[in-house]
Every structure is written in C-alpha cells, then in structure tokens.
C-alpha cells in the first residue's frame, strides 16, 4: 500500500486548493467512530489532513499484533516518511520523504534489484519509470501492466524513444500536462510525442535545461516556446506566441 503524503506548503497542495477542495477537517480517533456514508466520503477525502490521518490510522493497525495476524502475505506500506515490510514482524525498508506515491512506487522498484511489474493506468508512473530506467542504466526487466494481461516493456520503450527523449521525458511530461500543470486543449500526449519523434530537428534538445533551476532562464523559456510551436501548435514562427494563444485547458 503505497500512499501519497500531504504537505500544506507543496505545489500539489496548492493545485488542490486552486481546483477547489472542501475544508471540512474531521478528527480521526479510531475505527469505532461514526462511519461516513455516500458523498460524505468524497468531502472527507478532499481535505489533505483527513487523508493523512486515515493513512496513519491504517498503518498503526496493520503494524499492530492484531493487524499482522490478519495478513496472509507480507505487506508493504508507506507512511509520511518511511516504508515498512509487515509480516510476522515489522521491519523498516527505507526512509523516504517523497510526496507522490508515483515516485515512491518507482523508488521501491529501483531498490528491489530484481525484475519488476508495476500495475497502473497512470501516465505519470510510466514517464517516471522510463526516465529512471534510462538514467540508471538498469539491467533488470521492468514492465508496466496497464490492462488485463497487457504489459509494456520499459527497456523496449526506451530503445524506441531513444536516449535524448528518455533523458528529457519528465520535462516533456510536465510541459504537455500532468498533475500540477495544465494540458493543451484537445491535444493529447501521444500526439505530441509522435510529433517530437517525427521532428526534422531533435526537438527534445529544447527541453534539456527545463527543470534544472528553480527559476528558468529566458533562454530556457524561449526553448520551451520553440518546442510548443514546433510540436504542439505545429507552427514554424514563434514571434507571435502568447499565453492566451496556447489555448491551455485547466
């Protein structure tokens, strides 16, 4: 059970607030308190402190003697800053301060030192798997299971995309739309990636400085604009590009 963590000062939490989250904090005391029903759960889970408290409650129970007695197989669970292997005993696997379950999943896969299958439908996870597999030159087989009995080989994807796109794929993912950035209206990620691969110039090179610094330089922004025009807006001239003309969907 790999969980997100919820930090009040993070970009992700700022995104949640901007999209309108409920502010009904509930004091979580134990499993015997009144159980929520129906749409109450949606309102409850819209508050980050409620989710954090629920994860802590579950972790305390599963690590307890009563909780461990119910497990048929060893169980991996993350809390705010640690990952535990729970079986007959509780052992600390590693410390981790990642906010996103997406990166925690891939970190656990990297530390496994074995062949790995990650079952998910989230594009974020696939992008992170590709970047980690390429950058750390892994020799184990990693697979992304996205449908029933359908597996994607990460090593084959890396070979197909090539080293330049693999190295810059997280910048591409952020620029084309992810959890914390808006996407381009009616322009899907697959379509953009096809244009990147078909580009007569290696358009991926426009991404290589994006994300390296806290505040991007003017050159980095110009390069991002150039890539948007070439591979997203399908235009050759960039001097008329404005934020309003990009038709960004929130």
What's the helix and strand layout?
Layout (H helix, E strand, L loop, with lengths): L10 H8 L20 H7 L2 H16 L1 H5 L5 E4 L3 E5 L3 E6 L5 H12 L3 E4 L3 H13 L6 E6 L2 E4 H8 L1 H5 L1 H8 L6 E2 L4 H10 L19 H15 L15 E2 L1
Parallel strand pairs: 4-5
Antiparallel strand pairs: 1-2, 2-3, 5-6, 7-8
Helix pairs in contact: 5-6, 6-7
Largest sheet: 3 strands, antiparallel
What are the secondary-structure elements, in order, as H or E? Answer: HHHHEEEHEHEEHHHEHHE
Strand-pairing-aware structural class: alpha+beta
Largest sheet, spatial ordering of strands? 1-2-3
Shape: globular
Query: CA-to-CA gap between the ends?
Result: 30 Å
Low-confidence stretches: 236-250
Computed Rg: 21 Å
Helix content: 40-55%
Task: Please state roughly what percent of the residues sit in beta strands, choosing from under 5%, 5-15%, 15-25%, 25-35%, 35-45% or over 45%.
Answer: 5-15%
Q: Please, how many domains? A: 3
Number of helices in the DSSP assignment = 11
User: Mean of residue pLDDT?
Assistant: 81
Beta strand count: 8
Oligomer: single chain
